Amino acid sequence: MNHTPGPWKAIYDGDEELAISAPKGDPDLRCDSWQSFAVVYVSEDDGEAGLEKAAANARLIAAAPEMLSTLEYLVTRLEDITDIRLAEEVIAKAKGEK
After folding, report:
1. pLDDT, one tens digit for every residue, the chain (98 residues)
2. Rounded to whole angstroms, how far apart are CA atoms 34 and 45?
3. Handedness of CA 67, 70, 76, 79 (dihedral sign)
């Protein structure tokens, strides 16, 4: 199964969560219409740092499609077999194959 196509972005709702969202329809149309598919909640246990930590987590999640495609590209450029295997393991994990 494939993941939701990127680009993704984190959208703060102004309250207790950040929505991870992808464009509705064709992302090549550069539309301003976004559909949420995951949520990062702001932890009350972290006090003032809760929003900052949630925002950092949301940004990391939102960058996932670009990180995966970059890693897949870099695997084609690697020469050390150990590096290639490590990168391939991470790619498999990201795709749910491992």
Report:
1. 588 888 898 988 777 888 999 887 655 555 568 888 899 998 878 777 888 888 889 998 998 998 899 998 988 887 778 888 888 888 888 887 87
2. 30
3. negative
Q: pTM for the whole thing? A: 0.72
Neighbours of 30 (CB within 10 A): 8
DSSP for residue 46: G
Q: Residue 10: CB partners within 8 Å, gap ≥ 6? A: 18, 19, 20, 21, 40, 55, 58, 59, 61, 62
Distance CA 92, CA 14 (A): 35
* Cβ atoms of 38 and 17 closer than 8 Å: no
Cα–Cα distance, 26 to 15 (Å, whole number): 29
